[in-house]
Amino acid sequence: MYLIRELREKKEFEDFCNIVVHAYPGFKIETEEQRNKFVEYSMKLKEDNENITTYGLFKDEILIGGMRFFNFYMKLLTQHIKVGGLGLVAVDFLHKKEKIAKAIVEGFINEYKSKGVNMVALYPFRPDFYKKMGFGFGASMHQYKVKPSNLPKGPSKSNVFFIHEEEGDMVLECYNRAYNETNGLMEKELEDFTKLLKRPRTSIVAYKRNEMIDGYIIYEVKPHDENFLISDIIVSHMIYHSQEALMELMTFLNSQSDQIRQIIFNLQDPNFRFILEDPTNGSNNVLVPVHHEGSVEGTGIMYRVVDIDGIFKDLANHNFNNVDCKIKLIIRDTLVASNNKSIVVEFIKGKAMLRNTGDYEVEVSMDIANFSSLLTASVDFKSLYKYGRATLTHKEYLNKVNEIFYFPDKPICLTMF
């Protein structure tokens, strides 16, 4: 009924632009010049970056939907794996409620599954829609609104410098060290940072010693809508490798109290409040009975395993905490038929081995969305069991199964797509 293929001709990109204009009015593609820029950028995108491709969904040769596919490498637990990303999903207003978005997601999953990519990810316009499509919640974003004076003030910020465009490679090197150590981070390229450094309102400030960056913050200064004397700093990224780097960066932000009303941190870190003397956000809201409002939490990136066998092969060298156990894993997947099955996984000193048949110690059952969240360490097995999202045949195995899938760090993603 539908055909999904890469967009080729200028007219197709123009039609896609018209769909995006209505689907995302917040993009403010309003003038003819802005439309032309969007079309030119979209057409040139594939030439500039082979890892980003614009696709269209056609019905009777008429474009009625579109999206972009992204090829990523991601650190999953202790291993680097290929991941497909889906972005800019847009449906023609005349074809809403015709299951076009569902067809787009199915086409996306099938495309990456056919390439041997075993996990995909996206930022949802509606989390409930994608949950039904088998995508599991990732780590939450926490927004902290902090007075500059409420941040730690150390003895020095002498190693903190503004980063210039020609120093983008040093920022990339700092990020890459984090990428190799951090669950969920996706590989970046030098261009990702040079683009940021070209933006007039975006700044990167870094802790730099011995010609090496050991931590940095990416932020923008946002003026108040009605009072030009009031501004906030919005921190979108924060990477650091040492306490010294973190403390000097905090001291830098603390020193802005004469001009800045609030530092707004957007972090996938529920424990950041422990760096603050006052964890409240200035709203003066009190939750029952006496809990002062602190960070605001938001659900964002979602992950989906598209091939269960394949993802365990991706994690063949990962150690599932030295546990010995043989599990029959029953996964419910209503979208990908080959995933809707049971497999036997034997963990030998923490290494996962797939078995076609044979006996097992315990049966574990859940749907693909919750399995995807579990495997990325976005949630622990005990929580899934407690809330009835997973079952097991022998409760005495609860701690052992939880230990198998336990990982100390929830996934962090600093890549928008």
TrEMBL record:
SUPFAM superfamilies: Acyl-CoA N-acyltransferases (Nat) (SSF55729), SCP-like (SSF55718). It comes from the Bacteria. Keywords: Transferase. Residues 2-152 form the N-acetyltransferase domain. The keyword Methyltransferase does not apply. GO terms for molecular function: aminoglycoside N-acetyltransferase activity. InterPro entries: Acetyltransf_17, Acetyltransferase_Eis, Acyl_CoA_acyltransferase, Eis_dom, GNAT_dom, SCP2_sterol-bd_dom_sf. GO terms for biological process: aminoglycoside antibiotic catabolic process. Signal peptide: none annotated. This is GNAT family N-acetyltransferase.
